[in-house]
Amino acid sequence: MKTDLVTKVSLVDDHIVLRHALGNLIDASGSCKVIHQFNNGLELTKNLHRDNMPDVIILDMNMPFMDGYETSCWLHDTFPEVRILMLTMYDSELALIRLLQAGVKGFMKKDIHPSELLFAIQSVMEHGYYYSSHTSSKLAGLFRETQIGHSPLDKILMDQTELAFLKYACTEMTYKEIAQKMNLNPRAIDGIRDNLFHRLDVKSRVGLAMYAIRHGVVSF
Q1: Which superfamily, per CATH, for 7-141?
Q2: Helices (H) and strands (E) in the chain, counts
Q3: Which one of 72, 79, 198, 210 has the fewest beta carbons within 10 angstroms of its own beta carbon?
Q4: Residues 14, 92: Cα–Cα separation, whole Å
């Protein structure tokens, strides 16, 4: 990136006051300019065009209609060149891995210091990523092997079928209805459930739901 160019930023957050405050802060920096503000990911997908593309998109994780994870997946598939920074209160290992897989290049808390916000934008433009020391430590910990030769990554990684089941387990659907929804037989659903019970060290459907909420798989 040339240092004399202004970085174009889009903000996507359903909290209007916070979004405008971030916009004013970014515009005041002189090195960045907010060119779009959207209420949610769905609004962004309907209005983002190649003739006025941002360099960086700052997404809120929890939004109605289309949340930060879903929006990141869409951006990763549609406009992979755009750098994504995520505003999120979720910093568990599972949440970070899912967002990295969705193309997110950096993570920020909503109470981030103004100077850190601008540094994050600069970092993701110059280096392709931004990770705080806290996030870096968490990610590094995923690859540390235990005495029995396993890493925490082995425990938390889930495929799309397991993630889909975990989301449905947070609804009022019965296991039979979940099986029908996922086009699987009930025995397969029982197998997925029991495997997650074991891997996540939970003993009930309530435990699965609490895990999903705590790690940002679902939000309310």
Answers
A1: Response regulator (3.40.50.2300)
A2: 11, 5
A3: 198
A4: 23
